[in-house]
Amino acid sequence: MKIFITGATGFLGANIARRLLSEGHEVHASIRRGANAWRLENVMRELNAHDLDICDYGALCREICKIKPEGIIHLATYGAYPTVQTEFEKIFQTNMIGTANLVRACSEVKYGCFINTSSSSEYGLVRGKMSESNVPAPVNYYGATKAGATIFCSTHTRLTGAPIITTRLFSAYGPYEEPMRLVPSTIKKCIGNEKLEFTDGGQKRDFIYTADIEDAYLELLFRPDLAGEVINIGKGTQQSVREMVCEIIKATGTSSKPQWGALPTRENETFNWVADVEKSNMLLKWRPKVSLPEGIERTVAWMRENIQHYKRSGD
């Protein structure tokens, strides 16, 4: 299949692009001029890279009409991390305008499936499991714009019949993750036997390894019958930050000891974050396969081989 992917220079995008190439697909990736493409260095020759910004509708439309993709995977996003969640203009332009531009541009060609990648951040603070039937109640601009993009895509499908599916991803981890995130930053410190300081560590998340997400997307690409659906992509179970850190300590064999409570807990921090997977279980053949210990073992092994990228980042 000829697939157009946005956000290929990001954590999930790089993993999904690699997986698509390994499965024999023809991959076209939009890459903004000046973007740091270190995650794609060793597959750039296999990719069809396009100098594109999804916020430029005219250029995007012209390129899509040339490529004529059979499948679209939209992963480009902005504002997922707390350090940039107040940058409203960039968040709105990328998540809302960029998504609308891509949907409109792709309307000019006949494609089989369009996967719009959204986030569990749409749900906001929920006491129990987060279900697709919940009314979105985001607590920041990022979640709000992702919810808006989801509604836009679902509405476009209702109006036109376009085969667009939206995924709400939970707490992904694995190779190529952003250096400041919990898993890579902890692994890096453990490998170097550095000081380990954390908050209370009681926060729970629905951690899902990137290979499981790749598996889900490979199925969804061939499921145009799910047009208009919004589907949680999570494991349906949650584990605490403490459990995650303990797995990393075990996998790295570090001599470092975690100092719990050494850092303050963020304001409005939630201690519950887990997917209701009833809908995905009903609609998909896909099920997550990678356990937390296995996912951490694989991530640690990858980071040992690629630690230079994280040292180079200065984080």
Shape: globular
What integer is the average pLDDT?
A: 95
Provide the CATH architecture of the largest domain.
3-Layer(aba) Sandwich
Rg of Cα set: 19 Å
Query: What amount of the residues lies in strands?
Result: 15-25%
End-to-end Cα distance:
38 Å
Question: Could you give the order of strands across the largest sheet?
Answer: 3-2-1-4-5-6-11
What is the CATH class of the largest domain?
A: Alpha Beta
For the report, how would you describe the main beta sheet? Answer: 7 strands, parallel
| Total beta-strand segments | 13
The parts where pLDDT drops under 50 for at least 5 residues are none
Tell me the series of helices and strands, N- to C-terminal. EHEEHEHEHEEHEEEHEEHEHH
CATH names the topology of the largest domain as: Rossmann fold
Structural class: alpha/beta
Explain what this protein looks like in three dimensions:
The protein has 315 residues and is α/β, with parallel strands linked by helices. The protein folds into two domains: 2-170 and 210-233, NAD(P)-binding Rossmann-like Domain (Rossmann fold), CATH 3.40.50.720; 173-206 and 237-275 and 290-312, UDP-galactose 4-epimerase, domain 1 (Alpha-Beta Complex). The protein contains nine helices and 13 strands. The protein has helices spanning 11-22, 57-67, 88-106, 141-160, 182-191, 210-220, 241-252, 278-283, 292-312; strands spanning 2-6, 26-31, 48-51, 71-74, 113-119, 164-169, 171-173, 196-197, 204-205, 207-209, 230-233, 239-240, 258-259. A seven-stranded parallel sheet has the order 3-2-1-4-5-6-11, sandwiched between helices. A two-stranded parallel sheet has the order 7-10. Helix 5 (182-191) crosses helix 9 (292-312). The chain is globular, with a radius of gyration of 19 Å.
